[in-house]
Amino acid sequence: MSQATFSDDELFGEAASEMRADVESSLADAWDALPGADDVWESDAGNVLGVLNGLNSALDAGDAEAHLRDAKKWFTMGQRAEAFDDAEDLEEEIADLEETITTVAEASEQVSELTTTIPELRGTLQDVGDDADDADGEDD
């Protein structure tokens, strides 16, 4: 039985290819974990609060941040080891993904604030309306 021999360059090349595949896989998983466009655009809710609650639920990045972290970890390792011949595409995709996750998180925060503010505003407007109705009744 003969034993196969591998040079260090062959093994390093193979490891670099596997590392790039890991980064690409983690990036794909992160994109998949983000909410779908229709999920943040369409609603079956009957009122504004229902729309906001649905949107808030839809604006969950899920495991996207964890997958991005894995991608960045392996990308950084590959860069430091100078394992990637051409990594600009990965670097750009990581930056795009980070920006998208940040945008989703910021939108979620804004919707959360509105989810609290809108019911309070409605209550205030109802109270003002009730006071106005009472004042009209007293004038009669």
Summarize the structure.
Residues 120-140 are annotated as: Disordered. The chain has 140 residues and is an all-alpha fold.
Question: Mind explaining what this structure looks like?
Answer:
The protein is mainly alpha-helical. It has one domain. The protein is built from five helices and no strands. Helix 1 packs antiparallel against helix 4 and helix 3 packs antiparallel against helix 5. The mean pLDDT is 90.
Key attributes of the depicted protein:
mainly alpha; coiled coil; 5 helices
Low-confidence stretches: none
Helix coverage percent of residues?
A: over 70%
Strand content: under 5%
The overall number of domains is 1
What is the mean pLDDT? 90
What structural class is derived from the secondary structure elements? mainly alpha
End-to-end Cα distance, whole Å, is 108 Å
Question: Radius of gyration in whole Å, from Cα?
Answer: 26 Å
What is the 3D form? rod-shaped
| Secondary-structure element pattern, one letter each | HHHHH
Biggest β-sheet description: none
Q: Say how many strands there are.
A: 0
Number of helices: 5
Secondary-structure blueprint:
Elements: H1 8-33, H2 37-41, H3 48-58, H4 64-80, H5 88-139
Helix pairs in contact: 1-4, 1-5, 3-5, 4-5
Coiled coil: 80-110
Biased composition (Acidic residues): 128-140
Keywords: Coiled coil
